[in-house]
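Lab notebook, design round three. We kept the backbone fixed and only want residue identities now. Task for the bench partner: fill in a sequence for the structure below.
Input structure tokens:
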């Protein structure tokens, strides 16, 4: 995530070639599918655990839905924050009429989702009030900067992850996720198959803000960066794998089988292989399916390495543990450095050697932030929010 975003934001066009850059681009292309896959896996593991515990079954779905809603809301909070800092809205005298109600609205919505598992009525009231405040700020922004509003309402990767979590949690019982994980893969294929025809029909009569969640269409890239078609498919695949691993108690044999199946699928569906290349050349509609299978295959291989790494003594002490546990904060914090005004002198101008040095520095900073989030900042947050819970 950090590696590819900094490469994309910092490295000059004259240095974007060679084996190293291609390897970095391959890794970067796996980041979003991997996040969505793991989101689906976490939902499946939580659902299966709740199925085995009668005391958790009643509230688990709402807990998962609340988490998904928080991720979606933080996606919009990130857009507002980038506008305040990189867009300079915080120094504009008239911009407070937009960002102030939007910020307050986001805070109220987050409080509503946090209270959702305990009181659905109170949560619905808070979310409605918060959405109204955010909408009022969006209206004022539309009056003096309508083009900026589009970037703030964009369906980005956090919105895709959060919405996928909500949908899978809601569909877990009808799909019989615990006992029929294969249904997730069938639904994932269905999502991929409807991606193209749905994109041709959108936005239609739907507001662009809502159409952006459903799919991408020609001229709609500015608001639909990560629509549910096709990105929900990766979360569904992760849910299927997660449910199956939960049934087998995540044994080493089961993980190795997942990796072997992924390796076979990734090898067969790589477009560098004549078999997959000929399929995509002959049938254009197969391209999303082939690329989906290739990426999921690579992710399954990575799961084997992650499983093996988790069994070593170094796993609990490695920096990757803190970065993983605070991944949402790290994602939101590193973007201003990758694309924002903070590192504007680096924008599309440095070579790969300079990039690697400064990327290492940024990773150390993000690791320190993650450690603080899991340590002193966590204690402060618990003290502040304790009266509200």
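Proposed sequence:
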């Amino acid at each position: 995530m950090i590696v590819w975003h900094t490469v994309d934001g910092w490295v000059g066009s004259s240095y974007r070639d060679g084996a190293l850059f291609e390897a970095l681009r391959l890794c970067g292309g796996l980041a979003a599918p991997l996040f969505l896959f793991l989101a689906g896996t976490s939902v499946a593991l939580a659902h299966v655990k709740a199925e085995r515990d009668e005391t958790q079954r009643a509230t688990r779905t709402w807990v998962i839905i609340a988490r998904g809603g928080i991720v979606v809301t933080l996606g919009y909070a990130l857009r507002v924050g980038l506008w305040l800092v990189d867009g300079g809205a915080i120094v504009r005298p008239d911009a407070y009429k937009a960002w102030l109600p939007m910020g307050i609205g986001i805070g109220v919505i987050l409080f509503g989702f946090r209270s959702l598992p305990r009181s659905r009525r109170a949560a619905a009231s808070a979310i409605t009030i918060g959405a109204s405040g955010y909408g009022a700020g969006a209206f004022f922004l539309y009056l003096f900067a309508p083009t900026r509003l589009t970037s703030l309402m964009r369906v980005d990767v956090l919105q895709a992850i959060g919405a996928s979590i909500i949908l899978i949690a809601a569909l877990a019982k009808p799909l019989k996720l615990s006992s029929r994980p294969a249904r997730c893969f069938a639904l994932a294929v269905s999502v991929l198959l409807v991606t193209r025809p749905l994109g041709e029909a959108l936005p239609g009569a739907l507001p662009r803000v809502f159409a952006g969640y459903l799919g991408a269409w020609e001229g709609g890239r500015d608001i639909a960066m990560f629509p549910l078609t096709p990105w929900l498919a990766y979360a569904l695949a992760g849910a299927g794998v997660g449910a199956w691993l939960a049934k087998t108690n995540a044994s080493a044999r089961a993980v190795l089988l997942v990796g072997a199946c992924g390796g076979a699928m990734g090898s067969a569906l790589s477009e560098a292989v004549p078999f997959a290349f000929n399929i995509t050349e002959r049938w254009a509609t197969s391209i999303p399916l082939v690329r989906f299978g290739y990426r999921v295959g690579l992710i399954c291989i990575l799961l084997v390495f992650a499983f093996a790494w988790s069994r070593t003594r170094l796993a609990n002490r490695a920096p990757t543990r803190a970065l993983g546990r605070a991944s949402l904060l790290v994602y939101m914090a590193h973007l201003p450095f990758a694309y924002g005004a903070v590192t504007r002198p680096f924008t599309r101008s440095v070579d790969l050697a300079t990039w690697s040095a400064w990327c290492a520095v940024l990773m150390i900073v993000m690791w320190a932030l993650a450690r603080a989030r899991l340590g002193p900042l966590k204690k402060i947050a618990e003290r502040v929010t304790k009266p509200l819970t």
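Keep this in mind before ordering anything: The mean pLDDT is 89.
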